[in-house]
């Protein structure tokens, strides 16, 4: 039998997988309780954390977007930023209309402008440059 | 303990009966593990767990807000 016909037969026999368009965001969302736990471990006050989560929920921010912001806030605390100001700049950025990655970047810029957190160009802790998704190999 | 005849919404952590068999963090962990193992099947996994995407987000938020639940969830899925 011709190889192309065999291949065609195999391809038609394989069920077409429905790729969930939300795959990347759901995996991101799963990290929310983990990152918040790490923030508490890093010394961020529980009331500040809960206040930030309340803000997110009040604004209807999906968990995967909240993860981006919490990661930035956690990185700032780990880099020596004031723990009691955890999430302190988020409300203003949300009021300015920032969402998603743009929100995280706006918060990062705010931190940098105030001398908080990592220098420009350095990757967040736990993420390496030049790797897919910024993950450690 | 809850009073009343109505069953709480599945995603409403605040009204979950703590005496029931499945704790909210256990439910979230089970769903999270299933999704991590098969991300392409997320919709099916959520549906099988009686959750919408918004409901699962709400569950994750509620767990994150509780320090004990967040710790338990973190230790379970790492």
Describe this structure in words.
- The complex is a heterodimer of chains A (137) and B (78).
- Chain A has 137 residues and is mainly alpha-helical.
- Chain A has one domain.
- In chain A, 56% of the residues lie in helices and 0% in strands.
- Chain A contains 7 helices and no strands.
- In chain A, α2 crosses α5.
- With 78 residues, chain B is an all-alpha fold.
- Chain B has a domain at 30-77.
- Helix content of chain B is 58%, strand content 0%.
- The longest helix of chain B has 14 residues, at 24-37.
- Chain B is globular, with a radius of gyration of 13 Å.
- The termini of chain B are far apart.
- Chains A and B meet through α2, α3 and α4 of A and α1, α3 and α4 of B.
The sequence of SSEs of chain A as H and E is HHHHHHH
Largest sheet of chain B: none
The residue ranges of chain A in which pLDDT falls below 50 over 5 or more consecutive positions are 14-21, 128-136
Can you tell me the overall shape of chain B? Answer: globular
């Amino acid at each position: 039998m011709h190889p192309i016909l065999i291949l065609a037969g195999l391809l038609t026999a394989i069920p077409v997988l429905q790729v969930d368009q939300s795959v990347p965001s759901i995996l991101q969302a799963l990290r929310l309780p983990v990152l918040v736990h790490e923030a508490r471990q890093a010394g961020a006050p529980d009331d500040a954390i809960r206040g930030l989560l309340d803000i997110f929920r009040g604004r209807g921010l999906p968990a995967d977007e909240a993860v981006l912001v919490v990661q930035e806030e956690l990185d700032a605390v780990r880099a020596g930023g004031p723990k009691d100001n955890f999430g302190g700049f988020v409300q203003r950025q949300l009021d300015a209309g920032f969402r998603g990655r743009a929100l995280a970047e706006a918060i990062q810029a705010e931190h940098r402008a105030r001398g908080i957190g990592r220098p420009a160009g350095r990757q967040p802790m736990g993420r390496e440059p030049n790797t897919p998704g910024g993950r450690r190999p | 303990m809850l009073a009343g005849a109505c069953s709480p919404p599945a995603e409403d952590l605040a009204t979950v009966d703590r005496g029931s068999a499945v704790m909210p963090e256990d439910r979230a962990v089970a769903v999270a593990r299933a999704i991590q193992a098969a991300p392409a099947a997320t919709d099916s996994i959520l549906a099988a767990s009686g959750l919408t995407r918004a409901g699962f987000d709400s569950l994750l938020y509620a767990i994150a807000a509780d320090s004990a639940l967040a710790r338990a969830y973190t230790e379970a899925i790492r």
